[in-house]
Amino acid sequence: EGEAVRDSMLAVTGRLNAKMYGQPVFPPLPAGVVTRGGWKVNADPSEHDRRSVYVFVRRNTRYPMFEAFDMPDTHESCARRNMTINPAQSLELMNSRLVTEWSRSFAARVRNDGGQSTDGMLDRAWKLAYQRPPAEAERASAREFLERQTKLTGNEAQAWADLCQTLLSTNE
After folding, report:
1. pLDDT tens-place string over residues 95-143
2. Who wins on pLDDT, 49 or 156?
3. Three-state SS string across the chain, please?
4. Which residues neighbour 11 within 8 Å (Cβ) at sequence distance 6 or greater?
């Protein structure tokens, strides 16, 4: 479910706003999403990261991440959630500006909490994302990826963000 995916990503990245009750949340929508009836994005950016249960549901303007992950049809009076696996879900996680932003926050959290060693930071990333340490093959693959990405982008922080986005986007 898109709501659980979104909440999990926000929790892992350290951005989840656990505030309870209050007004519904209108997080930013991707460029090109047409709204009918208005979608006034909350002025306070911390409100954008509140739990998904608080995201406003408008029948004609569906939150894209929720829609990709089988949001119930809001045009039915007794909505049902279909369970599918489709390419739109992967594309949403790979191309979403929000997921990229969350990945940067995740990378910053890992680099801050993981200590000075690459292995310490990799352990922290796997613990946050999967609640387990990386296997040796995963650790070796991640080190190789970080080295290659750092050379490609010339930016170690971006390489970590790319790795973190990969961890957030897997089906584990």
Report:
1. 888 888 889 999 999 988 757 789 999 999 999 999 999 999 999 999 9
2. 156
3. CHHHHHHHHHHHHCCCECCCCCCCECCCCCCCCCCCCCCCCCCCHHHHHECHHHECCECCECCHHHHHCCCCCCCCCCCCCCCCCCHHHHHHHHHCHHHHHHHHHHHHHHHHHCCCCHHHHHHHHHHHHHCCCCCHHHHHHHHHHHHHHHHHHCCHHHHHHHHHHHHHHCCC
4. none
Q: How confident is the model at residue 78 (pLDDT cuts 50, 70, 90)?
A: low
**What's the residue count for the chain?**
172
Helix axis angle, 2-13 to 156-169, nearest 10°: 150
Alpha-carbon 92 to chain mean position: 10
Q: Please give the Cα distance from 108 to 161 (Å, whole number).
A: 8
Tokens of 32: 């090109």
pTM for this one?
Answer: 0.79
